[in-house]
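Progress report, Aim 2. The chain analyzed during this reporting quarter is listed below.
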Amino acid sequence: MPKQTDKSSSKFTKLDLADIVVGEPLPSAVYIYIDLHYIAFRLKGDVFDREVYERLELRRVNNLYILINDQQKFKDWKDIFLAKKESSSANKGLVKAKKELSRTALDIFSTDHPNEVVKKTLLASKKVAEEIMKAPLATMALTQLQSFSNNIANHSSNVSILSTYLALHMGYSHLPILQNVASGGLLHDIGKLKVKINQDDSQEVSDKKMQSHPLLGSDFLQAQDPNVSLEILLIVSQHHEFFDGTGYPRRLRGNAIYDLAKIVTIANIFDNLVANVSGTLPERQKKALRQLSEAQFYNKFDLEKHQKALRILELGV
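Predicted structure tokens for the chain:
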């Protein structure tokens, strides 16, 4: 972290964390306030990636600071980003279902102690699955399925919808299965609310703790609802497992990984790749798709599902 400091509060003003655009170079420096000092956290031209943003979000950091003289730069920067946003899907039913799913995700991830998580998720996920199933052979533009995301709630909503769409086009055509995929996708990161990160934890320690979130999420859901489906629990607990055994938390390998969890893993990584590059949403999706096609991922995924997912996603860009 840069060590520039400034004690003069009259020079600074608050910036909502939600105003940070993940993947886009900052127009000027961003500061945090610690021990009566404003400390430069990121400099002009630096980029917030999903991991950094999420770390702040989970620590309930709602505000950063910028120089008062830089306010207009940030306003112009945000306006350019908003102008890049693509129009939403023409499918009104899917648009409505997506909004409800996003509200559910926001409700779940905006508190440390969410209530009725499973019940809320099943209701919202069923509607998404039903809307996607209405045109089982239709190819949808990825901009209809995925939105710009910088926070956990938006990311979880994207993963839920992308996973359901991929599963349907891979041949999983029964509503209960797709509902489980949508629910598991929405809840895959729920365990992050239960990870205890201390202010003085090093990055290495924080990362190690965060690797417990799949199992913490599964345990949390079981405690909330003993009747939660095994399919959802397996998706939540295994969405970071890789086919070559290099994933976590259990380093499962090959077919020891639940079939539907493999699909959610691909959707999860794709959405993270989209968030961490710059450009319009379609530009980001094309860049992410090229990255997902690179050799580094060949051993990470089930080969058949990886190839199918690439073909499905390519049709949508």
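Residues 92-316 form a domain with the Hypothetical protein af1432 fold (CATH 1.10.3210.10). The first helix runs from residue 50 to 58. These observations will guide the mutagenesis work planned for the next reporting period.
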